[in-house]
Amino acid sequence: MTGTGTVPTGDHDVVAIGCGPFNLGLAALASTVDDVDLVVLEEQPELTWHRGMMFGDASMQVNFLADLVTLVAPWHPLSFLAYLHDMDRLYTFTVRENFFPSRREYEDYLRWAAAKLPSVRFSHRVEEVRWDAGEQRFTVDAVRGDGTRLRMRARDLVVGIGTAPYVPEALADLPEQMLLHTSEYLYRAADVAAAGKVTVVGSGQSGAEVAVDLLGRNVAGGPAVSWLTRTSSFAPLDYTKMNLELTTPAYMQYFHSLPEQVRDRLVKEQWQFYKGISTDTLEEIHELLYRRQLEHGLAEVELRFGITVESASVDAGTGRAVLTCRHRDTGESFPHTTDLVVAATGYRNRTPGFLAPVEDLLLRDDRGRPRVRADHSVELAGGVSGRVFVANAEIHSHGVSAPNLDIGAVRNAAILNAVTGREAYRLPKRSAFTSFDVPGRVS
After folding, report:
1. DSSP character for 158?
2. 154 beta partners
3. Of the four, 41, 99, 208, 390, which is 20 to 30 A from 29 by CA?
4. Cβ contact 352:129 at 8 Å
5. pLDDT interval class at 1 (50, 70, 90)
C-alpha cells in the first residue's frame, strides 16, 4: 500500500540509482535491449561531471573508445563517434589527431547521451528502498523535483551513486574558509585568489592539476605555493602498455578469484594506477618551475614528498592554519604554516541512507565491505531473489580498474547479461596477452 500522496508508477525490471557515467552507460546499453525495462533516477536536475576541476585545457586520461558503449557495442547509436557526427565535428576531430577528448567535451557527450534516453529521470531523489518478500520485488520510494512522491517496484537494483570527497581526520579541525577539497577548487576561486599562501596536501592527478594552476598564478605574481604528499615521490601514472594489462577484463576476472587478503595486498601495491600523475602534467609542472627561475620577486614555492600531515589547527595569534607534519624518512616532526589548504585526498565509497531498510540483507566481508560477485551483484541473505548490483564500489573485489571509465561498458554488459539471463552483449574473451593464473587452473 502506498503512503499518502504517493503515486505508484508501476513495475520495472531494473531501477538504477544515480546518473554518473556508469549508470548512464547502463541506460545506453539497455536502450537497445528490447526485453529490459530500466529506469535511472538522479536527484540532481541535470548531469554535471567534475565541474570543480573543469580546467579549460584539461583532457581525459582515456581515449574516446572508452565511452559509454563502444568497447562492447561499437555499432551503438550513443557512441562518442555518433556524438561527434551529430555535432558535425567528426572530420575535425579526425584531423586533430588527438584521440583524448577534453573533459568539457566528454561532459557534453554525456549530456547529449542523457538527452536521448527517456529512461533517465533527473530531479528524482530516492528516499528509501525496501524488499517485499511476498512480491519478490524491491520497492523504491522517490521524490520528484516538484514534490510529487513516487513509488516504483523493480526486480533488480543498480546502485551507482558515485564516491564522496574525502577529507582525512588530520585536516578536519580546520575551519571551512581555510580548507577545500579539490572537487570544489574552481568553485572556491575567490578564496584561492585571496590567500597569501596555498598548500596542496596529497597528490594524484587532481592534486597535480591544482599545483599547475597555482604555479601558473605564482609565476604571474600570485600566492606562495606548497605541495606536500605522503607518497615516496611525485610518481607518474604507470600507463605503460603491458602494465595496463592489469586493467583489462581478463585481469579483473582473475583478481576476483583471489582470496580477500591477497586482493587487499594487490590494491595497495598497485597504487600508481590511481595515485600517480600523468607524465604530461608532470612535465607541465617542471616547465612552470623552470620558468620561475627567469623571474624575480615571486612568492615562495615548496614541493615535498614523503610528508605525513598528522594534525591541523589555527594559530590564535596570526589566524593562519598550522599543519603538524612528519618527515617519513627521518621521523622528524615540523610545523607548516599556510593560509589555505587544498585537500587532494581523493574520494571514498559511501553507504547511502536509502539502503538502510535492506542493510541487513547485504552480506559483508570481514572488513565490513559488500561481498560482490563476479557479475557485480552483492551477495544477499537467503530468500531474496532480487539482486543489487554496484557500479564503482568494488575495488576490493574487482581491482583498481573498477573506477576506470574504460571498464564501465564491460561491467554494464555483464550486468545486463545477468539481468536478461542471456548474452545480451558479448563480453571480451581475449583482452590481455598476459596469463595471470596458475597454468591449468580454472578461475
Report:
1. E
2. 12, 138
3. 99
4. no
5. very low
Q: Cβ distance 341 to 172 under 8 Å?
A: no
Q: Is the pLDDT of residue 443 over 60?
A: no
End-to-end CA distance of the chain: 45
* Interstrand relation of 124-132 and 137-144 (parallel, antiparallel or unpaired): antiparallel
Q: What is the per-residue burial (b if ≥16 Cβ within 10 Å, else e) of 11-21? A: ebbbbbbbbbb
Residue 420, CA distances (Å) to 182, 221, 423, 425 in order: 40, 60, 8, 10
**DSSP readout, 306-365?**
SEEEEEEEE-TTT--EEEEEEETTT--EEEEEESEEEE---EE----GGGGGGGGGB-B-
Find cell 606548497 and name the residue.
226
For residue 372, CA distances in Å to 132, 392, 412 come to 22, 11, 15
For the segment 132-166, what is each residue's pLDDT rounded down to a tens digit? 999 999 999 999 999 999 999 999 999 999 899 99
Question: What are the phi and psi torsion angles at 377 (to 5°)?
Answer: -95, 145
3-state secondary structure (DSSP) of residue 273: helix
- What's the pLDDT score for residue 385? 95
The answer to whether 282 and 208 have CB atoms below 8 angstroms apart is yes
Hunting for cell 596529497 — which residue is that?
A: 202
Residue-wise pLDDT tens digits, 68-77:
999 999 999 9
Nearest to 57 by CA among 187, 216, 289, 199: 216
Amino acid (one-letter) located at 435: S
